[in-house]
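Entry 14: structure prediction run for RAVE complex protein Rav1 C-terminal domain-containing protein. Input pasted below.
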Amino acid sequence: QLLAVAHTILELNEISRSDIDLPGFRFLIAARLFQFECRSHQTCQQRLEWVDVAWAIHSGCKASLAKLSLPCEIVDWKTLSALGVGYWLDSPDELRKVIETLAKAQFLKNRSALAVMPWYLALQKKSVFLGLLKSSVKQRSMYSFFANDFSDPRW
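Run finished. Output tokens:
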């Protein structure tokens, strides 16, 4: 634990003070410690403590927090949820980038267009979702269904 905190402090020392404020600094230390404990299986915690998420909510540098606290490969919503991203990342553009990264990683992991459907539809990227369905031989019937115009009164 001490090693994770020391590594985080050294890394944050290199970042300019204008990129991160005190609440953000406190959140990053807690997030890095949580991630270290999860990787080393030293914790039975499922998520970051609410007090730590509150530091991120009060930070004025949420875009920097997203870049510094989120893992390079976001593999599932559980990873984001454990860090409380849905509560503190309030910039629509930043959230869109994170969700796109999540959707791409999930598709590469499962190769299932239906597994990433909620993410692409929430991002209003129906055409990307349809392209993924079309590329799969097994899901041609799903493609023909989702290709319909659901704003039509027939549906």
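Notes: The chain is about 65% helix and 0% strand. Will compare against the previous run tomorrow.
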